[in-house]
Amino acid sequence: IVLYEMFGWTPPQFAHLSLLINEQKQKLSKRHGDVSVTDFKEAGYLPEALINFVAFLGWNPGDEREIFSLAELEKEFSVERISKASAVFSREKLDWYNSQYIKNLSPEELLKNVKPYLVNANLTSEDTEFLLKAVSLEKDRVVTLKEIPEAIAFLFAESLDFDVELLVWKKSNKEDTKEKLQEVEKFLETLDDNDWTIEILEEKTKNWIAEKGYGVGDVLWPVRVSLSGKKNSPSPFEIANVLGKEKTLQRIETAINKI
User: Fold this and answer.
1) Digit-coded pLDDT (tens) for 159-172
2) For residues 239 and 171, is the Cβ–Cβ distance under 8 A?
3) How far is CA 42 from CA 38, 109, 145, 236, in A?
4) DSSP-assigned beta bridge partners for residue 87
5) CATH code of the domain made up of 105-156
6) Which pTM was predicted?
7) Residue 199: Cβ-neighbour burial (10 angstroms; 0-12, 13-18, 19+)
8) Of these residues, 25, 27, 30, 212, which one is catalytic?
9) Domain 2-101 adopts which CATH fold?
10) Helices 107-120 and 147-156, interaxial angle, to 10°?
């Protein structure tokens, strides 16, 4: 202000924002593990999510709304609503914001944003439709973009490495599991390519299971493990939709041969 006065300039109005502290009530500092904007970007946080989150540190719109675009923040923001109390930089809240923004991305936007992480993980394909489906598979489950490559790596694998015992559902056994996989493989072979969507696959497969009088878990558990090689993964219908009919049947056949 003294400099402004010395130069004969009209000083602007100054305002102090809330002090930012971490969850241990300490001032944000690299010494305490706090990171820069660049670090957050490299960790897979979307700029829009970070802006939205930071805007709410010491400010709120006066109602229950939490998701704001930059244009909406420009319109709604007012100095009068800035809190005098320190604002806590909660990683949990930032994670929530980022997950919401990821969920709202179109498949094309998501692929554009996650592609550098895929390339870094050596997960590439010339098939754009496959990539769009692959990245969308986990968009409702991940917190950051950086998590997506690891979550969907099994889709790119030439072969899956898993314990055969993982194929067996609860009180079932290897013999019954193999039989169920052989039967469901034959059933899936009868489906038309136009039926290869999540909704139709789920409807027709579950109807077939009911007609056979089989337990849902006895059939779908080994199918899901056959396609993912994992104990925890998206549904077999979601995975099959990404892999396509040919690769789905190949993975089921490979699992049958493992038993």
Assistant:
1) 999 999 999 999 89
2) no
3) 6, 17, 9, 31
4) 20
5) 1.10.8.70
6) 0.86
7) exposed
8) 30
9) Glutamyl-tRNA Synthetase; domain 2 (1.10.1160)
10) 80
